Amino acid sequence: MGLPEPPPSGASALPPGTFDGHVVLVTGGGTGLGKAIATEFARLGADIAIASRKPEHLDAGVKAIAGLGGRVHAVACDIRDPEAISAAFDDIERVLGLPQVLVNNAAANFPVPAEDMSPNAWRTVVDITLNGTFFCAREFARRHLAEGTPGSIINVGASYAWTGGPGFAHSAAAKAGVKNMVETLAVEWGPYGIQVNGLVPGLFPHDDMTADIKGNLDRTSEKDACQPAMRVGRVRELGWAATFLASPYARFISGHTLVVDGANWQRRTLTNPPVVTVREQMGKGPFQP
Length: 289
Ligand code: NAP
Description:
The chain has helices at residues 32-43, 55-66, 82-95, 119-147, 160-163, 169-189, 211-217, 235-245, 278-281; strands at residues 23-27, 47-52, 72-76, 101-104, 151-156, 194-201, 257-260. With 289 residues, the protein is an alpha/beta fold. It has a single domain, classed as NAD(P)-binding Rossmann-like Domain (Rossmann fold, 3-Layer(aba) Sandwich), CATH 3.40.50.720. Strands 3-2-1-4-5-6-7 form a 7-stranded parallel beta sheet, sandwiched between helices. The relative contact order is 0.15. Bound molecules: NADP nicotinamide-adenine-dinucleotide phosphate. Residues 27-28, 30-34, 52-54, 57, 77-80, 105-109, 128, 132, 156, 158, 201, 203-204, 208-210 line the site of NADP nicotinamide-adenine-dinucleotide phosphate. NADP nicotinamide-adenine-dinucleotide phosphate binds at residues 27-28, 30-34, 52-54, 57, 77-80, 105-109, 128, 132, 156, 158, 201, 203-204, 208-210.
């Protein structure tokens, strides 16, 4: 049986217009989960800003939000570059106003045995996922501190921040940093009215997944049966969680990381299954130095 299906797309637990007059910036908001999160904010009245590198992703995000009748502005930005982030905020402020909500959703990832990981691969994933998240949060906070206005930051994480992530050493380490950052920044910026929370998706397959991640997922043929919920997440469920965390109804929640994964990360078996190395799981031969 598993956990019941959620209400249909278009439903919301929050009152209509909850984000009327608000600007919400979603990094990586043109694909996958970022697009789903942006969509739920737009349904509740927010003006949406999307920032990422590729024009085709920005166009897809604009199309999704505009299709709902929402105001949307897309800006090309590589979140590894603090100056590009500052310029993106200038552009968004000019067109829509200073965002009251920042969703740090953009990240990079691909599976690779740690011994095969190049220094460049390590640096790139950590630079985007950890450094980029901090640079965006810093820019957002500095602008709100200067204006004396409140705001809300949501950092999208991953549950291997707690457990480690075999096959994803770079991303797991970066996400552990992202989760830790939530706790530090929530305390530092609470006095200035800025909430900082984490949001951890479980398994949420979507059409925009990169070939590497999809290929990894496809190693399991039956995804639902591998989850305690007996189903994967529906992207709107993550969007609903994000809108709640940034809403007026969650103003006393800060420094928290909300996991939306049907209890998958707590999963343990009664008896340990045999260990299968990451190389074997990925169908790779013996290590070649
Ligand atoms: P995705 O579709 O691959 O999206 C990643 C987004 O990040 C893309 O829109 C990409 O846009 C943007 N991005 C990557 N590098 C960037 C950079 N340097 N500067 C600016 N933007 C950049 O991934 P997703 O599955 O939706 O995942 C979204 C978030 O959820 C990530 O933080 C991920 O770690 C987390 N997550 C997802 C799952 C899942 O099941 N899907 C599970 C756990 C955690 P451009 O290429 O245009 O830059």
